[in-house]
Design a protein that fits this description.
Blueprint: H1 2-21, H2 24-27, H3 45-79, E1 83-88, H4 97-110, H5 122-132, E2 136-146, E3 149-156, E4 161-165, E5 168-172, E6 178-179, E7 191-193, H6 208-223, E8 228-233, E9 240-245, E10 252-255, H7 260-277, E11 283-285, E12 293-295
Parallel strand pairs: 1-3, 7-8, 10-11
Antiparallel strand pairs: 2-3, 4-5, 5-6, 8-9, 9-10, 11-12
Amino acid sequence: MVKNKKNTSNVKKSSGRTSSAQSPKSQGSFRRGQTISGYRKEDSQRSKAHDLIVKRRKISSFLMFLLAGAALILFVLSQLVVKIDFYSQDGKMIEDQSRYQKVIDEYYQDRPIERMRIFLNGDNLLSAIQSELPEVAAIDDINLKSFTHFKFVLNMRKPVASWSVNDKNYFVDNTGVAFNVNYYDNPSITISDESGIKIGDNHIVASNGFLSFVGKIIGAANTNNLEVERIVIPPSSLRQVEVYVKNVSYPAIFLTSSSAEAQVKSLSRAVRYFQTNGLSPQYVDLRVEGKAFYKL
């Protein structure tokens, strides 16, 4: 019986050593739920290439953004009108720049968006200029000189006749537009005032309507192969004029309240009639529409 107890004791001790030898703490075994330490993932070539592509795309996008922003700024600066130089159609800079600049500035104050050239309404701008500066016939071109600095090329009216009243010169072109600033040589055709009517400071006979009529006469005469040399306002009259034509010895009397073009056509027919029949009248009266009266 004693022997058996000794064996049992040995077995228990042996079991204790076995349990101690298999303990996780003594063996350094992995525990459930614990992060594995000491493990490092190596970057693959594919991962590096992908990262490089991403970086390149970011840099490219940033550069494209910068280029787009710079292009937009350059575009705005190339369209924004801040400073203007005015030139005539012959390439010469207009002397009185401030006179034209004032009108343009007033126009842009009312329409600030039109300082961007792409939004400019050329017809409205021309109308605004002509209302104050009738010597301008058209805006031929608008050219960029430098950023925000532009060159306006103005087509100036060419006078076909002039009239001096109270030491002030008036001009008219062949479309009948009257103006008082001339950029060309003075025209050879002058209006001689023999009416004898006194002209006060506030009552100028050279009205735009009268000068328009004279301009239309000259323009229509050129169309009908007639060259006007002189126009006279007869004594005590402002409603009629005497027109003298080159190589025609007699004057033609026009009524200023009737159509200039129609009266010129009547004159052309009358001149051909007199030449064909060898007649040389003292005058031809065109004041009745569609008819021509004459006195031999």
